[in-house]
Amino acid sequence: MIRQVSAERLQQAQDTGYQAFQKRLIPGKENILGVRMPVLRKLAQEIVCGDWRAWLDDPAPDAWYEETMIRGIVIATAPMEQCERFARTADFVPRIDNWAVCDGVCASFDLTDRAAWWDFIQPYLHSMEEFHARFGAVMALELFEGQDDLQRTLEALAGVPAQGYNARMGVAWALSMCGVRFPKQTLDFLEQSGLDTWTHRKTLQKMLESRRLTGDFRVITQQSRNKLKSTEKPKRQTG
């Protein structure tokens, strides 16, 4: 009954225009109602204020993309011990089958205990599974705070073995954010990292897309990207 009520609330909040927009952003994902993120966060908070364990433990499958997003946000924000949060997060990660749920949920966690979270994401950073690896990469970015974290973050991201499109894009995005904040160190690292050419090029492209990259570093980044001649892209994985 709890899950039924939340599903009804989602259907009432449907925006068909936004639904069409989201379907373009998340190719192949059809079970999208089209509910905006602020509404999803509000519904998640209402669940957190009630019997959130009963909601999470209801065996009914997630019928909608939005239900999976809410599930992840509830796991990230409900009051629980860290060991339970880690266990529930580990159970949740296999449900991730698109970049939007991955990135939206990763941004919802309280990462105060950064050392424990860094240890927790290590298996995902070493996973060959496309969305497990993207989860690890995006969480590494969420944990990244500054220069003290830079080298370990760069090395962890460059070492992600998964080859799925969404995994490589997650790695490139995370590396580019390191590059925008610390362009010299990141560009120097990329030159000697052995990172595959496609991900390297995407990293430089995303650095160039950021308005925060300015001056000589923008010129150097463009020059570095121009040197990478390969146009091969990783194949999208489905299923």
Task: Describe the structure in your own words.
This is DNA alkylation repair enzyme. The relative contact order is 0.08. Helix 9 (130-143) runs parallel beside helix 11 (165-181), helix 10 (147-158) packs antiparallel against helix 11 and helix 11 packs across helix 13 (197-209). The chain is mostly helical and 239 residues long. The chain starts with a helix and ends in a 12-residue tail after the last helix. The chain is 68% helix and 0% strand. It folds into two domains: 1-96, no CATH class; 111-239, no CATH class. It is built from 14 helices and no strands. It has helices at 2-12, 16-25, 37-48, 52-57, 65-77, 82-92, 99-106, 114-125, 130-143, 147-158, 165-181, 183-192, 197-209, 215-227.
